[in-house]
Amino acid sequence: MATDGQAAAPVAAAADRGADSDVEVALESLGQWQLAWRRFKRHRLAMAGLAIFLLMIVVAIVGPIVAPYNPLNIPNSKIPGGEPPSLTHLFGTDDVGRDVFTMVINGARISLAIGGFSMLIAGFVGVAVGAISGYAGGIVDNVLMRVVDVLFAIPFLFVILVAARFFGQGQVIPLVLIFGLLSWPLIARLVRAQYLSLREADFVEAARAVGVGNMRITFRHILPNALGPVIVAMTLIMAGNIVLEAFVSFLNFGISPDQISWGNALSNAQPALSLGNWWWAFFPGMAIALTVIAINFVGDGLRDALDPRSHL
Amino acid sequence: MTEELAGAIGSGPPGPDVLLEVRGLRTHFHVMDGTVPAVDGVDFRILRGRTLGVVGESGCGKSVTALTIMRLIDTPPGEIVAGEIWFDGRDLLRLSDEEMRKVRGNDIAMIFQEPMTSLNPVFTIGDQIAEAVRLHKRVSQREALNRAIETLSLVGIPLPERRVRQYPHEMSGGMRQRVMIAMALSCDPKLLIADEPTTALDVTIQAQILELIKEIQQRTGTALLLITHDLGVVAETVQDVAVMYAGKVVERGKVDQVLLDPKHPYTEGLLTSIPSHVARGQRLNVIKGTVPNPFRMPTGCRFEPRCPYAFEPCRSFEPPLELPYPASAADAGRLAACWRHVAADRRPGPSATSHVGFAVSQRIGS
Asked: How far is the CA of B325 from the CAs of A210, B41, B55, B285, in angstroms?
């Protein structure tokens, strides 16, 4: 084979007869991800959702720096029921005079952090468990899936509330861990199902025939092919966990009142129901709703973009 | 060379010019309804640089034999029950998983039936060939990609520098099979196993791919194990042939020995059922009956229920795979498993079991 350079000529010539009909060199070579992005871009709602989502992330990062007021600073000028929206206070103020706009853009940081990082934990654990379970099969699969079954059987809300109260202590990181570690089983099941079919794929057998080891097949060869539905599910988990944070904080089991999340802001605004100062609850609520809808649209777009059966 | 080709199945490693020797190989699958003896006593050998075709109809165990040599059988449900696979002085069945992983792709490479689905859709073909190289050779990614370009031009792919950056979905089936061949060749394997490499391709491309495999085999000197159900392919591509029926090798020898003067009735049946031998308007010759039910194999010769020449010993006794009798000089090196070609004094006489054997075969044959 050392003399390939010279010897290749006759073979190439012989093969050209057939190769001619095969010359279909595309103008540009697009990978699966590039093709998916191209499909995603055609999905208008998804693009709008992505824009809103990215805006929220920017707000979460720079918001607290550019916010006009200190969210925790309570001015002494108490106006019962707070001020309605005005040019000085875009979203009005609460009953102790804090700026609601400042609270909303500060809350973005914690709410998105909890949604985002808990999603990453769920994704990481879920993919690892599901991949090993689905590829290894047998006893390993059985043990891991029974663990998943048990986690599914536990009354979710009850565990979250208890865990948030005892381990959460109102801090962000424990809440991220709790949410993340309770939401991975869904991902694990999804990933396992993908692996069960993909492990029989011809390209997996071909990879084994070339001498690729099991770990490499599991995480390098199969994983990219299994990610589509997982990414979609992860967006749903992120949206779900943002709502869950609001819910838990609303019940005062979540983030402590000295930090501001959207859930906290809503929780504080409970008197608004009776006082009629709608802006107090409306804007944090809208922030949650808008973000969750945006993420769901992104998920919807990803579902279409990553579906191998959909074509341009 | 003919003596080595036929050499008796012994113990211990075969001689140095034998690259692959499969002895008494049995691979069974344990399924819900029982055990399927997919490969049930397969013996053959390939000398260095030679080419062997394995022929037989669907389900006779050809592919399982190939996968067993590569140790790619899923266990469970599969189980390699017995046998030895001597490759280059080592018994592959005794290697550890890690040692076997180093053999795959490096010493033995395989080309599969389905080029459309055998490449990973998310990687460029350059990456996939380069990975195969880097798994076995200590080279940089750059060098591995150069090797990929080199092998792609070897298999006659135009513009290999551009092709390495393309994804499988940008190529036709024929192109992808060339890529699979390039990947198989990338580590200079000593043995190339091609499992029905042209079955999924259209007829015009089939001939090109076979021609390519043949040319590359001749130039690189790699040995070739070609699995096919097509006797035409065997006649054109390989030097030696092994005919399989119901999990066993029933006849083997050089291509002209076996195809021009078949000794086993199954080989004969395969040859006469090739349509081109029949005049227009005449019915095609077929082998009567069907492949035996794997759960109830005939006790004697497995072909007996379908065999036009079946006689007494066939029903109860399995014929040995040996030099056909009477043998002329032209038969040197060939083997067949048929009682018709065993000297009469060495055939088992009628015995008490023959009646039982007859009853069993009657049931299966009907």
From this structure: 43, 22, 23, 27
- A21: phi > 0 → left, psi -120 to 50 → alpha, else beta; which? alpha
Which of A22, A28, A215, A307 should one mutate to test binding to chain B, selecting the residue with the greatest count of B CBs within 10 A?
A22
CA angle (A73 as vertex; A67, A74 as ends), nearest 5:
130
Chain A residues whose C-beta is within 8 A of a chain B C-beta are 1, 4-5, 7-8, 10-19, 21-26, 29-33, 201-203, 205-213, 221, 224-225, 308
Distance CA A232, CA B289 (A): 53
**For residue B133, which residues of chain A lie inside 8 Å, CB to CB?**
none
How far is A49 from chain B, CA to nearest CA, in Å?
27
Q: What is chain B's mean pLDDT, rounded?
A: 82
Q: Tell me which residue of B235, B240, B197 sits closest to B109, measured CA to CA.
A: B197
Question: Tell me, what DSSP letter sits at residue A218?
Answer: I
Nearest to A213 among B101, B156, B172 (CB): B101
Minimum CA–CA partner of A36 in chain B: B122
Shortest Cα distance, chain A CAs vs residue B23, angstroms: 22
C-alpha pair distances (Å), B157 with each of A14, A144, B105, B189, B245? 11, 46, 21, 20, 37
pLDDT in tens, B288-306: 878 888 788 888 888 888 8
A96 within 8 A of A280, measured Cβ to Cβ: no
Sign of CA dihedral A280, A282, A285, A286: negative
Is omega for the bond preceding B320 within 30 degrees of 0, making it cis? Answer: no
The answer on pLDDT for B197 being more than 80 is yes
CB distance A22–B175 less than 8 Å?
A: yes
Determine whether A166 is exposed, middle or buried from the number of CB atoms within 10 Å of its CB (0-12, 13-18, 19+). Answer: exposed
Q: In the structure encoding, which two tokens stand for residue A107, read together?
A: 């809350």
Q: Are B72 and A208 in contact (CB under 8 A)?
A: yes
Helix residue spans in B189-346 (DSSP H): 203-220, 231-237, 255-260, 265-272, 312-316
Would the CB atoms of A211 and B150 count as touching at under 8 Å?
no
CB contacts of A31 in chain B (<8 Å) are 122, 124, 167
Which amino acid belongs to residue A240? Answer: G
d(CA B90, CA A63): 68
Note whether B220 contacts A1, CB cutoff 8 Å: yes
Write the residue in B110, B117, B157 that is nearest to A19 by C-beta: B157
Q: Do B156 and A32 count as a contact with CB atoms less than 8 A apart?
A: no
> Cβ–Cβ of B112/A12 closer than 8 Å?
no
Pick the closest to residue A62 from A108, A98, A117, A93 (CA basis).
A108
Cβ distance B215 to A14 less than 8 Å, yes or no, reads yes
B347 burial via Cβ count (<10 Å: 0-12, 13-18, 19+) = middle
Asked whether the predicted pLDDT for residue B49 surpasses 50, the reply is yes
Collapsing DSSP to helix, strand or coil, B366 comes out as: coil
Identify the three-state secondary structure at position B241. Answer: strand
Highest mean pLDDT among A74-88, A160-174, B127-141: B127-141
CA B243/CA B250 separation, integer angstroms:
6
Which residues of chain B are within 8 Å of residue A26 when distances are taken between CB atoms? 166, 170
